[in-house]
Amino acid sequence: PGFSRSISGNPRRRNSIKPAGGGLPFRLRWMEAKDLSAVHAIETMSFSNPWHVETFLGEIQNRPVSHALVAVHEQDKRIIGYIVFWIVKDEAQINNIAVHPDDRGKGFGKGILAATLKEMKASGIRTVTLEVRESNLKALGVYKSLGFQVVSRRRDYYTNPREDALAMLLMFGP
């Protein structure tokens, strides 16, 4: 799976994803340089130690390993969130996911992740990993509801404030 031509990595599939079910009004598409202002605004509102704009730009430029997607609201066409992940062979690592504060609590974060996981599975990904702050109970709940399990603790992984990360794993069946 290369995610090089389409979001799923399958050249016969599309370059944007409309999540199935749930009726959430957004589509996922590749992140572009023109999106970085909106993406970075969400990032700084979401994290105490945010990524720099240059980091996102590097992710955009590092295909086929890095996959940076934005969630665009269908009615007003604004970016409501994003997800950044790496794929190496049949493994994926979710590096960053966030939703604009005005759009939280509406199911968009879970929808973004669920749609991405569905495409990953369809393209042959076998395992997905991520790290999450131990105190981020909402994210932990979403990840667990989608099948992720805590597999280890990474001491002092986060800074500002210093906190442990929980490493989580999702394995797709055959």
What does this structure look like?
The structure is a single chain. The protein has 174 residues and is of the alpha+beta class. Helix content is 25%, strand content 34%. It has 4 helices and 8 strands. It has helices at residues 36-46, 53-61, 108-122, 137-145; strands spanning 16-17, 26-30, 66-73, 79-88, 91-99, 127-133, 149-158, 163-171. It has an 8-stranded mixed beta sheet, sandwiched between helices. Strand 5, helix 3 (108-122) and strand 6 (127-133) form a beta-alpha-beta unit. It is globular, with a radius of gyration of 15 Å. The two termini are 16 Å apart. 32% of the residues are buried. Mean pLDDT is 89; it is low at 1-6 and 10-14.
Oligomer: single chain
Distance separating the two termini: 16 Å
Which residues form runs of ≥5 with pLDDT under 50?
A: 1-6, 10-14
Average residue pLDDT: 89
Number of helices: 4
Percent of residues in beta strands? 25-35%
Order of strands, widest sheet: 1-2-3-4-5-6-8-7
Work out the number of β strands. Answer: 8
Biggest sheet layout: 8 strands, mixed
The ordered string of helix (H) and strand (E) elements is EEHHEEEHEHEE
Counting helices, strands and paired strands, the structural category is alpha+beta
How much helicity do the residues have?
25-40%
- Rounded to an integer in angstroms, the radius of gyration calculated over CA atoms is 15 Å
The global form is: globular
